[in-house]
Amino acid sequence: MTNYTSLDLQGPVGKPLVRVSGREKVTGTATFTAEWPIEDILHVVAVPSTIPHGTVREIDSSDAEKMSGVRLIITPENVPKFTRVQSGSETNFATTVASSLFPAAEKEVFHAGQYMAAVVAESFTAARDAALQVKLKYETKPHVTDIDQAQADERPEKLMGAPAVITIGDAEQALQESEVVVDHEYPLIGNHHNPIEMHAAIAHWTSKNNKPFLTVYETSQSLSAAQTSYAKVFGIDPKQVRVICKYVGGAFGSKGLMWPHALLACFAAKLTDQPCKCVVTRSQLYGGTGHRTPIRQRVAIGANKDGKIHSIIHDGYASTAIKDTYSEAFTMVTRMMYHTDHLRLDQKQCRLNSQMPTFMRAPAETPGMFALESAIDELAQELKIDPIELRRRNEPEKDIHSGKPFSSRLLLQCLDAGAKRFGWNERDPAPRSQSEGNWLIGQGVAAATYPFFTFPTKVRVTVHADGRVRIDCCSQEIGTGTRTAQSQLLADMLDVPASRVSMELGDTALPKGGISGGSATTASVGGAIRDAVEKLKSRLVGLAPSDSALAGVKVDEVRFENGTLVSPKGSIAIEDLLSDAMKESVSVMGELNASKDSSFSKHSFGATFVEVAVDEELGLVRMRRMLGCYSCGTILNKKTGRSQFIGGMIMGIGHALHEATHWDHRLGRITNDNLAEYHIPVNADIPEIDIMWIDTADYDASPIGAKGIGEISITGVAAAVANAVHHATGKRIRSLPITPDKVMV
Q1: Residue 694 half-sphere exposure, CB side, CA atoms within 13 Å?
Q2: In this structure, what DSSP letter does residue 331 have?
Q3: Which parts of 254-409 are beta strand (E)?
Q4: Would you say residue 2 has pLDDT above 60?
Q5: Which of 5-9, 161-165, 563-567, 646-650: highest mean pLDDT?
Q6: Coil, strand or helix: which one is 191?
Q7: What three-state secondary structure class fits 106?
């Protein structure tokens, strides 16, 4: 295990600096994937299946081929040669290929929206119109798209590295012997991500050193992994592939894997020998780029009359695809959230005729915390104990599953600080006790948590003789301000103004970066930067002349101060050192090797408070105010950090009150595959949001003391909203979203 020492971060870190990409984004000059100006580009539009299960007997493209501007129809008969690599859903990012069903290459249909063919044309409109004229003739087979009609008899082999069944003691027996028991089911409907920027890819095959060379512009959260994946699919060396993505316009997990549209662009480029662009339409997103699985879960908690929990049971099942496997580990948070002597977690899964589910912001924790935190609130109501006090009485001393101590766990501090600022103790705890006219008023609270991850990452740090400093890393800018925050971190470590530091990312020509997922980017890139700074110090000391203030000084005696190297014998400016050595710049490589072995259980924690107003006659739920208090280690940038917390809380409102993917199970098709009918929060739905955090570095978890913040703020919201609705109305709503019909019942 690596023991990380504390950093004396007193410079730009933490300051609310404006993100360096802000002006480009608001003025429209930032180049997103579909906007790269490439000459002679062709356009690709997929032809999706209209049935959920069956066999394509014939593809009639005769009418489409005659249409103006059409260059090619890709079908299983002419799709270029490729290798069927195993999907990334089962190999833990050995590849990022999302599915073993390859576009325009299959005759078997396993879900509606599967890309069975594609049209390549000189314009998007020509390709779109021609795609509508490609006729697929099927032999249909029985299908199941309803999770309640599927056989949930399959257990995943692993859930985030842990068994699907975890037992401590005898939870069933302890539950029966408990003085107070809550035991309920919490069914959740499926969701889709719907980022503003649609998924897109531009591919172009050229020749380099007499070998084929593939360049792909792709909306991706994992460029380095995508580079390896393209190489495997097309049987070439990763050095023959370059993947570029300078900006991502929203992802939430949906761009973590390589979805079929990206391979379609590569297929089309290979067949036409021209650059080809494939942009997923909004409706095709619902069948082509994954989703949050529907989930059926049960939480049972047994306690004594003083609120001491003796037993927790959390079980249920989620869906996955017929041909591919993605297992949503929704019981994972229950392993470590509260103390109990008896625990049973048991997950199963069923297979549906749907696109493969995938990561969606705080996958596993978001649905799992809704059920667990709702059940905790129900137990508090049964016991007539304040929900915060109940959590206090069951605060664990260690992770009860792993047996490890927490690297830091400031959950109670978040609850207490948040409660004070929110005015939690001023409320009347009795349900239906507060009203304003026709509106019933309620307050709710829920805990939040998210585990700490890092991915292997490399960075190159270059110091120039004119004082400029640059970071190079093939990470991704997915809207969180990575370039800004990491530049602040390096500026702080070198003790130079942040304006002198820049960062280049989004290109596999740069040092290999990790995946921008799992709230891991900040610590992964930052950890590699810390390693680079130590190597840079050693390199610069080695350049020092024999008559300088650094001569004969040990590296660990040297520190960076105001752009100089300071030792017990004196100091020397970095620019002077490079000038004396006749070097325009010095570069070093830093690296973070993400070790899975640790003596600690690593997580971020937080608390979510909400106030709602409910009109029972109209079934309306209106958010009045929200507060989130979080403990995520060091916050590198107050402005971008606050934005991430707010973004997660807003998405949590969508999960609680709005978002639902609806199906016509007779046809096996989604009925609201558009933004007119798939409801997401808009400005009028969002109340005043107050954000606070406990800025305490966690060096037992992270080399820079910081932990992820992008996902934790969604994890407690839905439960807090449901708990507030119960407080307002006395009605316990255990399924999401909380729609008017549920409120009026």
Answers
A1: 20
A2: T
A3: 276-279, 295-303, 309-321, 342-352
A4: no
A5: 646-650
A6: strand
A7: coil
1 pLDDT band, cuts 50/70/90, is very low
Give the residue with greater pLDDT, 179 vs 11.
Answer: 179
Contact between 363 and 330 under an 8 Å Cβ cutoff? The reply is: no
Tokens 């494939």 sit on residue: 278
pLDDT-derived band at 547, boundaries 50, 70, 90: confident
- 204: amino acid identity, one letter: H
What is the rounded distance in angstroms from the CA atom of residue 711 to the CA atom of residue 47?
A: 34
Instruction: Give the C-alpha distances (Å, rounded to integers) separating 503 from 162, 460, 485, 559, 561.
Output: 37, 10, 10, 23, 21
What's the CA dihedral at 48, 49, 50, 56 to 10 degrees?
150
Reply yes or no on whether the pLDDT at 156 is more than 60.
Answer: yes
Residues labelled as active-site residues: 711
Query: Do the Cβ atoms of 109 and 323 come closer than 8 Å?
Result: no
Tokens of 51: 């049935």
If you average pLDDT over residues 695-711, what whole number do you get?
A: 95
Q: Nearest-CA neighbor of 591 among 431, 448, 456?
A: 456
pLDDT band at 216 (very low <50, low <70, confident <90, very high): very high
**C-alpha to C-alpha distance for 201 and 509, rounded to whole angstroms:** 18
pLDDT per position as a tens digit, 609-619:
999 999 999 99
Say whether the peptide bond before residue 737 is cis (omega within 30 degrees of 0). yes
Residue 411 has which token pair?
């959950």
CA-based Rg of the chain, rounded to a whole angstrom? 27
What are the tokens at 96? 């990022």
Q: List helix spans (H) across 194-275.
A: 223-234, 260-272
DSSP state letter for 356 = P
Q: Above pLDDT 90, what percent of the chain? A: 93
- List, as one string, the DSSP characters of 606-651: EEEEEEEEEETTTTEEEEEEEEEEEE-B--SBHHHHHHHHHHHHHH
> 180 and 727 in contact (C-beta within 8 Å)?
no
Return the structure tokens found at 658: 């709005």
Residue 17 backbone zone (phi > 0: left; psi -120 to 50: alpha; other: beta): beta
Token couple for 637: 């940038």
CA pair distance 504, 433, nearest whole angstrom: 56
Of the candidates 550, 721, 699, which has an alpha carbon nearest to the alpha carbon of residue 621? 721
Q: How far apart are CA 741 and CA 745, in angstroms?
A: 6
Question: Helix/strand/coil (H, E, C) string of 657-716?
Answer: HHCCCCEECCCCEECCCCCCCCCCCCHHHCCEEEEEECCCCCCCCCCCCECCCCCHHHHC
* Contact between residue 726 and residue 733 where contact means Cβ atoms under 8 Å apart: yes
Cβ(331)–Cβ(159) below 8 Å: yes
Query: Long-range contacts made by residues 11-14, C-beta under 8 angstroms, separation at least 24?
Result: 11/491, 11/492, 11/495, 11/498, 12/488, 12/491, 12/492, 12/497, 12/498, 13/488, 13/489, 13/492, 13/634, 13/636, 13/637, 14/634, 14/635, 14/636, 14/637, 14/638, 14/695
The CA-CA-CA angle for residues 258, 262, 268, to 5°, reads: 150
pLDDT value, residue 10 = 82
Q: Which residue has the tokens 């048991």?
A: 346
Supply φ then ψ for residue 278, to 5 degrees. -125, 115
What token pair was written down for 325?
């496997």
Using DSSP bridges, classify how beta strands 603-615 and 439-451 pair: parallel, antiparallel or unpaired: antiparallel
What is the H or E stretch that residue 167 is in?
A: strand 165-168
- Kindly report the pTM of this predicted structure: 0.96
Q: Is the pLDDT of residue 103 over 90?
A: yes
- Residue 77 burial (CB count, 10 A): 10
